[in-house]
Structures are given as C-alpha cells and as structure tokens.
Amino acid sequence: MESGKQLSGPLALSVFTAVLGSLQYGYSLGVINAPQKVIERNYARSLGTLREDMEPSRNLSDAEPTHPTVVMYWSLSVSIFSIGGMVSSFLVGFVADLRGRIKGMLAVNILAITGGLLMGLAKMGTPHIMVIAGRAVMGFYCGLSSGLVPMYVGEIAPVAYRGAMGTLHQLAIVTGILISQVIGLEFLLGNDDLWPLLLGLSGAPAILQTVLLPLCPESPRYLFIKLGKEEEARKALQRLKGVHDTSKDMAEMREEKQEAMKEKQMSILALVRSSVYRQQLFVALMMHLSQQFSGINAIFYYSTGIFSKAGVTQPVYATIGVGVINLIFTLVSVAVVDRAGRRTLTLVGLGGMCCCAIAMTVGLVYLHTYTWMSIVSIVAIFLFVSFFEIGPGPIPWFFVAELFSQGPRPAAIALAGCCNWTSNFIIGMFFPYIEALCGSYVFILFAGLLLVFIVFTYFRVPETKGKTFEEIAAGFQRKRKGTNSAPTGETEMVHLKSSSDA
C-alpha cells in the first residue's frame, strides 16, 4: 500500500527536527513561571530594594518583593516575550521565501542561541536587563519559529498524515511547557543558584536543530513552485516519501504552480485587501482567536489559585499534573485528527470547554458553601485542558497552511501568527484586571466566547481532512461564487493580479 511507504526515515527526521523549534517555544512559554519568586528576589537584590531581613531567608514565600520597581521589571520580563513574537510574526513569509524553509529555520536559530546566552549569563551582568533582553530576543525567535515550523511540516507531510504531523507542532509545545515546569521545581533548577541555567536552557533545542537541519531536505513545494527547480523537488520528494513514483505529487504541485503563477506572490497588504481570499482569511484568524480567547491561558494563570483554595498543599505539582494532561490529550489528537477530521475535533473541543467553563464557574461560586465544589473545580480544570488539546489547541496552527495555496500561504501564516501572539498578549495583560472585576464569574465570559466560536465553526469552517490544498481552495471559491457572482473566472484572476501588485 503506497500510503505506508509515505512514512519514511527522512520524513520522520525532518518533522522531528522542525518541531524542535516548537519544543523551544513551549519551554520559553512555561519556564518563566516556576522560578518567579526566586527571580524577583534577584531583581530586588540587583536594584537595591531587597529588605535586609529577607536576605538570609530560604523560604521564598516569605521573601516576595513588593517594591513597584521589581514588579515593573518582572512584568516586562514576562510580557516582552509576546511583544517580540507579535513583531517577528510579520516576517515569517519574508524569511521563509528568502532562502527557503530549512535555511530560514537555520538562520533564526542564531536568535534562540543569543537569547539563551543572555539569560544564562544573567548573574554576570545586571539580572533584570539581561533577562528582559534575552526574553525579547527569544520572543522574536519564537514568533518566526511558530510560523516556519507548521509551514514546513504542512508542505512536506503526505495528505493522509498531514493532520497528525501538523498536530506535532502543538505536541512539541506542550512537551516543552511540561519540561520547563518539571525542571523549574526548586530542588532542581528553580532555585537561587541555578535559575539562570534554567532560563538559558531555552536555547538548547536550537543547538540540536542546527546540527540536524542540514540533513533534512528542503520543502519540495518551495523548490518547485517558488524556485521552479523541478528535478530538485523530485529528489526531495523521493527522499521524504521513500518511493520512486512521484508523478502524482508532481502533478499536484504543477497544478498548484500554475495557480501560483496566476496569483503571483502576495504581500500581507494584498492578502488583506483581496476579496478572493477574504473567507479563508476570516476563518484562519477566527481559528486562532478561538484558541487564545477560549480561556486556556487564564486557566493556567488561575489553576494554582484554585488548587490552593481546594486544599492542595503543593499546588505546583497539581499544575504539573495539568501539564501531563496537556501532553496526553495532544497525543490523542495526533492519533485521531486524520480520522475524525479537523472540524469535528474543533467542535468537540470547543463544546467541551464551554461546559467546563460553566462547571468551573459553579464550582468557584459555591466553593465556600459546599466543600465538594472544590472537586468540581479541579475536575473542570483537567477536563478543560483535555478538550483544548483535542482540537482548539493544535489544529489552528496547521489549519491555516491547509486553507491557502502557495501564493498567499506565507502572508496568511504571518497574519494568523500575529493574531495569535497579539491575543496571547491581551489575555496575559488584562486577565488579572478582568478577574479582579468579575471574581468567581470570570469564566462565564469565556463560556460566552466559546459559544460564539462553536456557532462560527459549525457554519463557516470547512473540513479539510484528506483534501489537497487546491481542493480546499476550490471549495472556498465555490462558496464565494454562490454568494457573490461578480468576479468569476478571468475577472477573478485580474483582481488577484492587481491586488498582488499592491
């Protein structure tokens, strides 16, 4: 059976190597949380605001700095990561097309290693400045990596396994988060002596990826469609798929190339202005909004507090338990996404999360009235995370690459990535204020948003399972012609050409 031959050693190596960038992204997301008190104390010491009676104390809970300068520098250390990602996400298409996907990932690893060194050597300089600079550089790297990885994996994956391989991006992210949570425990690296090493390890996967990337073939789609190198594309296909008959794949790419020649290369501005791709772009951005505004990051921020209220003596271990659940259900998604379909899993995930958000609200409101409500809250947290990783977590990352053909794909991924990073920043920045305003009812807001996303997904998001990029694009064009018959056929191509020149 040919599909069995499509899973070759070089393909596995290429996907593994690419998602090392996602592992690094996940590690960088999670690493800053566990050693917060330790790092704040080092900031206070460096700034001269650490009280004398705190200095000999090894009990970090008694040593929480309250000086506003420390709070400001700590907040900047956390948020600068998202700001770096927001800025660099616009450059994904430029980097991917400049020298190719492989060389693009190779080049941006310089940023990751630089960021890791800045944080790892924090004690040799001014800690708060070194960490903020390192986090900014690492965020800039992750903004690029979070676009380059799904793009490369989506382009090299066989159609039958494209969903599973696309989900590996999210699997690597949650694995990175879990690793950072575990080694960030105080008795490992999350202590006063080793915290710079903990942060510096953010750049470690980039070193391994730099060694392995030269062994990976370039994306055949990039070689053939972008550069016109048919023979090199054929050789890359043979290496990736382990089969000699590449005629079907080449025919599909040839058709896609013909469309791309009509489209030309689309800039971000041209894509935003183009009415032809408006539906795809709207769906892509809504998928990323549903991921971030589902409340998942709020859950991670709030889980430790809920676990504490529920009487968990070591809430940090319960939070690690959430990370384990994260990992397990992402594996479930990898296993079923190409059977159940993207749309189905997204609907199941969003629906489950909506129910869990309501259950969590009930549990929080009646936490002090009925002791058993603490169990409801804890179970709701675990189930919320489980439903997120089944669909809304992993699918948006590779779904965008499936919605667009080669011409507008880099610009679309850049826009979707920026939307994701901006939403992440907004939630991280404003959730504490919303939580203070709404109290125990805060998750009702997310339940309402989830309901909106469920309705949108049901009516507007297509199923892309087992379809080629061109079949997916054609489906959108049929819908568009059904609602607006003005620019069809030749006039549509004229519109595309004019918009791509913008």
UniProtKB/TrEMBL annotation:
A Pfam family hit: Sugar_tr
Domain Major facilitator superfamily (MFS) profile, residue spans: 14-465
GO cellular component entries: brush border; plasma membrane
TM ranges: 7-27, 71-92, 104-122, 128-150, 171-189, 195-216, 281-304, 316-337, 344-366, 372-390, 411-434, 440-459
Keywords: Membrane, Transmembrane, Transmembrane helix, Transport
Superkingdom field: Eukaryota
Major location category of this protein: membrane
Compositionally biased residues, Basic and acidic residues: 492-502
KW Repressor (keyword) present: no
Bilayer topology annotation: Multi-pass membrane protein
Localisation per UniProt entry: Membrane
Keyword Transport listed: yes
Region of interest: Disordered: 480-502
Family per record: Belongs to the major facilitator superfamily. Sugar transporter (TC 2.A.1.1) family.
Protein name: Major facilitator superfamily (MFS) profile domain-containing protein
Native organism taxonomy: Eukaryota, Metazoa, Chordata, Craniata, Vertebrata
